[in-house]
Design brief:
This protein is an alpha/beta fold. Helix content is 40%, strand content 18%. It has a nine-stranded mixed β-sheet with strand order 4-3-5-2-1-6-10-11-9, sandwiched between helices. Strands 7-8 form a two-stranded antiparallel sheet. It is globular. It starts with 7 loop residues before the first strand and ends with a strand. Bound molecules: uridine-5'-diphosphate (UDP). The site of uridine-5'-diphosphate has 24 residues, from helix 1, helix 3, helix 4 and helix 6.
């Protein structure tokens, strides 16, 4: 078994990452299939893994509110979207033989456990993958913030931000050929240079609590397990 660099970790998967070729409004089951294969590899290493899943592939509060919806209602719709994604992930993970629990910040006991910190930690200790759904349970927040919050609460040693790019660049590599990849940077450097690692709330929480963030490309086979083994994959902000 590979040596673990982090015993307990929290992986943030955006809704967009689940959309794949389904575009901005759905779940691509081929993507979930690949992703859950990755998570199966990770589980084999013995790492205790929590997942926070976004909902942007179904509803984004700010966008719905721009179109005329009340912001708070729109945000609750966004939080419900994360539950839909969580159930899809749970189903496929369990079909692959992994033990999981969905814990929701918004109570809906027919389909998910309510989020209770001590119970979440107990699940992790028993080797279950805990999928945290419903964001923080509060409007005006994001699932990035929920991810950092849960990571701090369960005392994860690192937060892994799964994206579709290799990590942090000095500029958008798709638009600027001079964009440089950054393997490592401090919280301060990210802040001063305005590198968008996470939204400002989430980033501030990490900085204040010295929780390292690894931004990496989830589409690279084996990347998640390699990050957790301590290999230099993606960008580490610490
Ligand atoms: N949301 C919220 N509070 C939270 C987390 C999420 O109100 O604590 C809402 C918000 O409207 C957001 C939507 O849920 O736009 C989906 O989450 P997010 O945009 O963070 O998902 P991602 O971008 O990761 O897919």
């Amino acid at each position: 078994m590979a040596q673990l660099a982090y015993q307990r970790a929290l992986l943030k998967i955006s809704g967009e990452a689940l959309a794949g070729s389904a575009g901005a409004a759905g779940i691509d089951f081929a993507v979930i299939d690949r992703l859950t294969d990755e998570l199966k590899q990770v589980a084999k290493t013995g790492v205790q893994l929590g997942l926070v899943v976004g909902g942007g592939n179904i509803v984004r509060g700010a966008t719905a509110s721009d179109k005329g919806m009340d912001r708070v209602s729109a945000d609750y719709m966004g939080m419900l979207a994360t539950v839909i994604n969580a159930l899809a992930l749970q189903d496929i993970l369990e079909k692959k033989g992994l033990d999981t629990r969905v814990m929701s910040a918004i109570r809906m006991e027919e389909l998910a456990e309510p989020y209770i910190r001590r119970r979440a930690v107990r699940h992790l200790e028993k080797g279950r993958i805990v999928i945290f759904a419903g964001g923080t349970g509060n409007p005006y927040f994001s699932t990035d913030t929920a991810a950092v919050l849960r990571a701090l609460e369960i005392e994860a040693r690192v937060i892994l931000k799964a994206t579709n790019v290799d990590g942090v660049y000095t500029a958008d590599p798709k638009k600027d050929p001079k964009a440089r990849f950054l393997a490592e940077l401090t919280f301060q450097e990210a802040l001063v240079n305005g590198y968008a690692v996470m939204d400002a709330n989430a980033f501030g929480l990490c900085k204040e609590n010295r929780l390292p963030i690894v931004v990496f490309n989830i589409n690279q086979p084996g990347a998640t397990a390699r990050v957790l083994a301590g290999e230099r994959v993606g960008t580490i902000v610490q």
